[in-house]
Design a protein that fits this description.
Length: 1082
C-alpha cells in the first residue's frame, strides 16, 4: 500500500519534536501508530481493510493513562484521519472507528477542538443514517464523547439532532426497539446539555425539548425488553441531563406543574432499589403548607420520641432495637461502556454485610430503624462509636450465594445506588435553581414529621440517611438536607411547641416544630449508627445547619442538650474532618439565640462529662494551669485560671479550644490529618481555626463565662498573631474583635486594671506589626477593628506612648490604598473621636475630621459608609464641645473645616442609602447649627480674608427658612453680617437680601432692631451694590444686573407678603433710596 499523506491531516509535527524526547514510552507508541495511520490512503482492498483493523485494535489496546504525553490536538487529528480512511459502507470498520473515538477521548480525557469537531460530527451523524442498525450503539457512544463539553460548538447540527424529527429524538423515543441504543441516545442528549463556563448555553427551545425528553424517560416504567442495569444507566443519563440544564443557570423552573413533576420523579428515584422499600409517587407533587395526610393528631412529645419510624413496618410497643445496616464497600464499579459522565457519581462495589452494635438507643429516647421489615435483633450494651468491635458480621449463611450470583447482585446494587445518588445530586441542583419560598412549599414531601403512635413514617431524606447501604448515597442525602436547611431561619421561625396537642387540625407552627424535633431525633440516631467518616462529617455539618436555623427560644428544652451530649465524644474522633465539623456544631450551638439558659448550663458541665477517652489527636484537658505548658510568650503572673462566677469549675469548652490552639498534640495524628503541615507539632490548621472561631463566639455570646479567661485569650491572640500562617494570624485578630474587651463594661464589669493589662499585652505584642503588615491587608483591617474595640476607660488608662501609637497608626492607615484597611480605619477613628480623653484635643479632632472627609470621597461604597458613620460621631463630639463652658475648643477649631464638613454631609446625603443614612444624621442632627455658629464666627473674627469671603457666601446657600434654625440664631447671623459688611460689601449684601427673601414674621422684630442701629450704613451699601452689580472680587463670577435686580424683586415681594408693621420699616431702611435704581435696572 502506498504511503502517502492523507489530505486534511494535521500539519507537520516538527515544532513539537524537541519537547517530546522526554515523553514516556506510551506516548511514543501512540505517535508511532499515528504516523502509520497517517501514512495510509483510502483503499477498498481487503488487505487495506485488514491493516486498518489491526491499527485500530492496537490503538485501542494501548494502556493510556494521565501524563502519557499525547497532545489533544494530535488525538483529534488522528481521529479525523481514521474516519477518512473508513467509508460508510464498511459497517465493521465504522463500528471499529467509533470504538476508537469513544476509547481515546475517554481514556485520554480529550475534548475535541473546534477545528476537527465539525468533520467528526458530520461523519458520525452520516454513519447513523447510512450504516446498519447494529452499529448504532457504538456510533452513538462516539457521538456522546464528541459532544461532551462541546454543546455550544454543535449549533448547526442541533436541528438534525434535536429537532422535531431529529436523530436523537427518534432513537431515544419509547418506541425505540433496542434499549441499548435508546440509552446511548439519551447519553448523547445529556452530554449536549452540559454547559461550559464562558461558552454559550444551549438555546432555550432545545433546553425545553431535552428537559421534556428526560422527564418523560423518568416518568415511564421500565420496558419488558430492558434489563435492570441498562434501565439504571438510562435513568442516570436522564438525571444527569436535567442536572446539566439546571446547573447551566439559564433554565428556570417557573411552572408549578413542571417543578412538581420533576420533584415527583426525583423523590421516586431517590429510593430506587433501596432494599425493603417500594414507593408509588403521584405524577406531580403540589406545594402545600400542611401535611398531605390531613386529620392526623399529634401525640405527646414523650410518645413521639419513642415511636417507631419505619416506612414498611408497624410496631406499636416500645422496644430497644439496634440498627441493622448493610455496609457496602467503597470500590468504584467501572462501567463496561467506559463512557464519559457529565457529572459522575461513583457507585459501590462488593457487598459486605454487617450487623450494627452501637450506642444504646435508650440514650437517645428513640427506636432505631431496621433495614427491612424483617424485624429487629435483641438489645446490646453501650459501646464507643469508634471501637473496632462496634460492628459484627452476620452469619455466613446470610451471605452465602454463588460467585456469579454475588457478582451480579453487587453490580446491580452498585447501579441502583448510582441512580439514587444521581437523583439526589439532581435535586441539589433543583434546590439551587428555585427560590427558597417555593422550595419550602414542598417541605413535608422531603422532611420527616413525627409519626403517629403505631403508624409508619412517610419516606423522606432521613429514610436514606438511616437506611441506605451506600455511604455515598447517605452523604448525598445529607448534602441535600443541608441545602434545604441553609437559610431556613425565617421559615422555621414560625415553629412553636404548644401544650395543647389535641386539636381538630394541626397548626402550621406545630407541624414545623414537629419536623424540627424529628430532624433532631433522626440525625442523632444516624450519628451514632454511622461508620463512614466522610458521611459522619456530613451528618455533623447537617446538624450544625439545623442548629443555626432552628428557633430554640420557641421550642421546648432538651433538643440542644441531646445534640450537645451526643457530639462531645466526636471531638476526639480519629478523623480530623469529623473533629473540625464537631467544633463547627458546638460553635453553632453557642451562637444560636445567645445567650440561652440551656446552653449556659451545658457550658458549666464538668469538663470530663461526655468526653470519651478514645484515641485522639486532641490534647487532653489538665488542671487549671494546663495550657501554660507551651506559653506563646512572656506569661503574666496574674493569668491564673479561675472559675467563672456561678459555675462549679471553669468552662470546659473554652479550655478545650485554647488547648487545641496553643498546645502540641499529644498523640500522633491519623493519616486523615492532611491539614497539618509536615512536622507540625500542633493540631491541623482547620482544627485550630475552628477552635478560634468557637472562642470568638463564646466571648461574644457568653461573656459571663469567658471573662475569667481574659488574659489567657490575650496570650492566645499574641501567639496566633506571632505565627507564620496568615490564616492563623487573621483568626487571632478576629478573636480580639469578639473578645471580652469589647463589651466588658456593658454587662459584666471586670477590674479596670485587668483590661488595661490585656491591652498593654496586645500593644506590646504582635498587634503593631500586624497593623503595619501591608502585605496582608485583611490582617491589617482586622487589627484596625481590634483597636476600635478598646473602651474609653481602658484607653485613657494606657501609657501615653501606647495612646499615641494607636492614634498615629490609625491616622496613617487612613491613607491606605486598600479599601478594607481604609474602611476599618475610618470606623476606628469614628470610635476614638467619642473618647472623653480625646474629644477636647483640637489637633486630634481636626486630623480625624480631615481623614473622615477624605474617606467620604473614596470610590468604595463601603469606605464611604464607614466614613459617614464616623462623621455622625464626629458631629456628636463637636456638639458636646460647643456646649461646654470653656470656649477654647470653639476658638481654636477651624471654621473652614466646619464648612467643609457641612458641604461633605450635604453631598453624602445624595449618595447611596448605606452612606445617606449616616450623612443625613450628621447634617440634620448638628452640622447646621454648628456650621452657622462657626461661619458667623469666621465672618466676624477670621484674619484670612478669603476664608471670610467664603463663609459669608456659605451663609446664603440654604434655600429654606427652617434651615437657618431658631429666631435667635437667625438674628445672630443678621447681626454678624450687618456688623462686618464694610469689608465684604458684595457678599454681605447678597446674604442679607437672601435672608430677607426667606424671613418669617417672627424674625422681623430682631431685624428691625439691628437695622435701626446700622440702617444708614446698610442702606448705603445696598445702594452701591445695586448700582455696580457685584464688584467682581475674588469670590467668583459676579452677578449680572438682571440677576441682582431679580434678587431684590424677590425680597421685596416676600416682605410685602408678610403682614407685619416691622416689615414696612425694614423696607424703608433697606430700599428707600434704591427703589428707583432697582426700577431702572429692571
Amino acid at each position: 500500500m502506498a504511503a502517502v499523506q492523507v489530505a486534511g491531516s494535521l500539519p507537520s509535527e516538527q515544532p513539537r519534536e524537541a519537547p517530546r524526547e522526554a515523553i514516556p514510552e506510551r506516548g511514543n507508541a501512540f505517535r508511532r501508530l499515528s504516523a502509520r495511520l497517517c501514512a495510509l490512503r483510502p483503499d477498498d482492498s481487503s488487505s487495506a481493510r485488514t491493516e486498518i483493523h489491526l491499527l485500530f485494535d492496537q490503538l485501542i489496546s494501548e494502556n493510556y493513562s494521565e501524563g502519557s504525553g499525547v497532545a489533544p490536538e494530535d488525538v483529534s487529528a488522528l481521529l479525523v484521519q481514521a474516519c477518512r480512511l473508513v467509508p460508510l459502507n464498511q459497517n465493521h470498520l465504522v463500528s471499529k472507528v467509533s470504538q476508537l473515538i469513544h476509547h481515546l477521548l475517554n481514556r485520554l480525557q480529550v475534548i475535541v477542538d473546534e477545528q476537527h469537531l465539525d468533520f467528526l460530527l458530520a461523519y458520525t451523524i452520516s454513519a447513523i443514517h447510512q450504516c446498519s442498525s447494529w452499529t448504532h450503539m457504538e456510533i452513538l457512544q462516539a457521538l456522546a464523547a464528541l459532544v461532551y463539553c462541546n454543546g455550544s460548538k454543535c449549533q448547526k447540527y442541533l436541528p438534525e439532532l434535536l429537532g422535531k424529527t431529529g436523530l436523537l429524538m427518534k432513537l431515544s423515543d419509547l418506541a425505540q426497539s433496542d434499549p441499548e441504543v435508546r440509552r446511548a441516545a439519551v447519553h448523547c442528549m445529556a452530554n449536549l446539555c452540559l454547559s461550559v463556563p464562558g461558552q454559550p448555553y444551549l438555546e432555550e427551545p432545545y433546553q425545553n425539548i431535552c428537559f421534556q425528553a428526560f422527564l418523560t424517560i423518568l416518568q415511564s416504567p421500565k420496558s419488558s425488553d430492558m434489563d435492570d442495569i441498562t434501565f439504571c444507566m438510562l435513568l442516570q443519563n436522564a438525571l444527569k441531563g436535567i442536572q446539566s440544564l439546571l446547573n447551566g443557570g439559564r433554565m428556570k423552573l417557573t411552572q408549578t406543574d413542571e417543578l412538581g413533576a420533576l420533584l415527583a420523579v426525583l423523590k421516586k428515584f431517590m429510593f430506587h432499589g433501596l432494599p425493603g422499600l417500594n414507593i408509588e409517587m403521584p405524577t406531580v407533587l403540589y406545594p402545600t403548607p400542611l401535611p398531605q395526610y390531613d386529620g392526623r393528631t399529634p401525640i405527646k412529645p414523650q410518645q413521639s420520641e419513642s415511636s417507631a419510624s419505619r416506612p414498611t413496618l408497624n410496631k406499636k410497643k416500645k422496644s430497644k432495637v439496634k440498627p441493622k445496616k448493610i455496609q457496602q464497600g467503597e470500590e468504584e464499579e467501572k462501567e463496561s461502556s467506559g463512557e464519559i459522565e457529565a457529572a459522575s457519581v461513583t457507585g459501590t462495589g462488593r457487598v459486605n454485610l454487617h450487623e450494627g452494635n452501637t450506642w444504646s438507643p435508650s440514650s437517645l429516647g428513640v427506636q432505631s430503624l431496621p433495614l427491612d421489615g424483617s424485624g429487629a435483633a435483641g438489645k446490646d450494651g453501650v459501646s464507643s462509636p469508634f471501637s473496632s468491635s462496634s460492628w459484627k458480621r452476620v452469619s455466613s449463611s446470610e451471605s452465602d450465594y454463588s460467585d456469579a450470583e454475588g457478582g451480579m447482585q453487587s453490580k446491580m446494587r452498585s447501579y441502583q445506588a448510582k441512580v439514587r445518588q444521581g437523583a439526589l445530586v439532581c435535586f441539589l441542583s433543583t434546590i439551587k435553581s428555585i427560590e427558597k419560598k417555593v422550595l419550602y412549599g414542598y417541605w413535608s414531601a422531603f422532611i420527616p414529621d413525627t409519626p403517629e403512635l403505631g403508624s409508619p413514617q412517610s419516606v423522606s431524606l432521613m429514610t436514606l440517611t438511616l437506611k441506605d447501604p451506600s455511604p455515598k448515597t447517605r452523604a448525598c442525602a445529607l448534602q441535600v438536607l443541608s441545602a434545604i436547611l441553609e437559610g431556613s431561619k425565617q421559615f422555621l421561625s414560625v415553629a412553636e411547641d404548644t401544650s395543647d396537642h389535641r386539636r381538630a387540625f394541626t397548626p402550621f407552627s406545630v407541624m414545623i416544630a414537629s419536623s424540627i424535633r424529628e430532624l433532631h431525633r433522626c440525625l442523632l440516631l444516624a450519628l451514632v449508627a454511622e461508620s463512614s467518616s466522610q458521611t459522619l462529617t456530613q451528618i455533623i455539618k447537617c446538624l450544625a445547619n439545623l442548629v443555626s436555623n432552628a428557633p430554640y427560644n420557641r421550642l421546648k428544652l432538651s433538643l440542644l442538650t441531646k445534640v450537645w451530649n451526643q457530639i462531645k465524644p466526636y471531638i476526639r474522633h480519629k478523623d480530623v474532618n469529623v473533629r473540625v465539623s464537631s467544633l463547627t456544631l458546638l460553635g453553632a450551638i453557642v451562637s444560636t439565640h445567645a445567650p440561652l439558659p440551656e446552653v449556659q448550663l451545658l457550658l458549666q458541665q464538668p469538663c470530663s462529662s461526655g468526653l470519651g477517652n478514645s484515641n485522639s489527636a486532641t490534647p487532653h484537658l489538665s488542671p487549671p494551669d494546663w495550657w501554660k505548658k507551651a506559653p506563646a510568650g512572656p506569661s503574666l503572673e496574674e493569668t491564673s485560671v479561675s472559675s467563672p462566677k456561678g459555675s462549679s469549675e471553669p468552662c470546659w469548652l473554652i479550655r478545650l479550644c485554647i488547648s487545641i490552639v496553643v498546645l502540641p498534640k499529644e498523640d500522633s495524628c491519623s493519616g486523615s490529618d492532611a491539614g497539618s503541615a509536615a512536622g507540625s507539632a500542633y493540631e491541623p490548621s482547620p482544627m485550630r481555626l475552628e477552635a478560634l472561631q468557637v472562642l470568638a463566639l463564646l466571648a461574644r455570646g457568653y461573656f459571663s463565662m469567658a471573662q475569667a479567661y481574659l488574659m489567657e485569650l490575650g496570650e492566645v491572640i499574641c501567639k496566633c498573631m506571632g505565627e507564620a500562617d496568615p490564616s492563623i494570624q487573621l483568626h487571632g485578630a478576629k478573636l480580639r474583635v469578639g473578645s471580652p474587651a469589647m463589651s466588658w463594661a456593658a454587662a459584666f464589669p471586670l477590674p479596670l486594671f485587668q483590661v488595661v493589662m490585656f491591652w498593654t499585652m496586645m500593644l506590646n505584642g504582635p498587634l503593631p506589626r500586624a497593623l503595619q503588615n501591608s502585605e496582608h491587608p485583611t490582617l491589617q483591617a482586622s487589627a484596625c477593628d481590634a483597636l476600635s474595640s478598646i473602651l474609653p476607660e481602658a484607653f485613657s488608662s494606657l501609657p501615653n506612648d501606647r495612646q499615641i501609637l494607636c492614634i498615629t497608626v490609625l491616622l496613617g492607615l487612613n491613607d491606605s490604598k486598600n479599601r478594607l484597611v481604609k474602611a476599618a480605619t475610618s470606623r476606628a477613628l469614628g470610635v476614638y473621636v467619642l473618647f472623653p480623653c480625646l474629644r477636647q484635643d483640637v489637633i486630634f479632632v481636626a486630623d480625624t475630621a480631615n481623614a473622615i472627609l477624605m474617606s467620604l470621597e473614596d470610590k468604595s461604597l463601603n469606605v464611604r459608609a464607614k466614613a459617614a458613620w464616623s462623621l455622625g460621631n464626629l458631629t456628636d463630639t463637636l456638639i458636646v464641645n460647643m456646649e461646654t463652658p470653656d470656649p477654647s475648643f470653639q476658638e481654636e477649631f477651624s471654621g473652614l473645616l466646619l464648612l467643609k464638613m457641612l458641604r461633605s454631609a450635604i453631598e453624602a446625603s445624595k449618595d447611596k442609602d448605606k452612606v445617606k443614612s449616616n450623612a443625613v444624621r450628621g447634617k440634620k442632627v448638628s452640622l447646621h447649627s454648628l456650621a452657622y455658629s462657626a461661619l458667623t464666627s469666621v465672618v466676624t473674627s477670621c484674619k484670612n480674608f478669603k476664608v471670610r469671603i467664603r463663609s459669608a457666601a456659605a451663609l446664603s446657600v440654604p434655600g429654606k427658612r427652617e434651615q437657618y434654625g431658631s429666631v435667635e440664631q437667625y438674628a445672630r447671623i443678621w447681626n454678624a453680617l450687618v456688623t462686618y459688611c464694610a469689608s465684604l460689601r458684595t457678599q454681605i449684601c447678597e446674604a442679607l437680601i437672601h435672608l430677607l427673601s426667606l424671613a418669617s414674621a417672627s424674625d422681623l422684630p430682631c431685624i428691625k432692631e439691628i437695622l435701626e442701629l446700622n440702617g444708614n450704613m446698610v442702606q448705603s451699601y445696598i445702594v452701591q451694590f445695586l448700582k455696580s452689580g457685584a464688584e467682581g472680587d475674588d469670590t467668583g463670577a459676579p452677578h449680572s444686573p438682571q440677576e441682582t435686580d431679580q434678587m431684590v424683586r424677590m425680597a421685596l415681594k416676600h416682605m410685602g407678603s408678610i403682614q407685619a408693621p416691622a416689615g414696612d420699616t425694614i423696607l424703608a431702611i433697606c430700599f428707600e433710596s434704591s427703589g428707583s435704581q432697582g426700577h431702572s435696572q429692571g
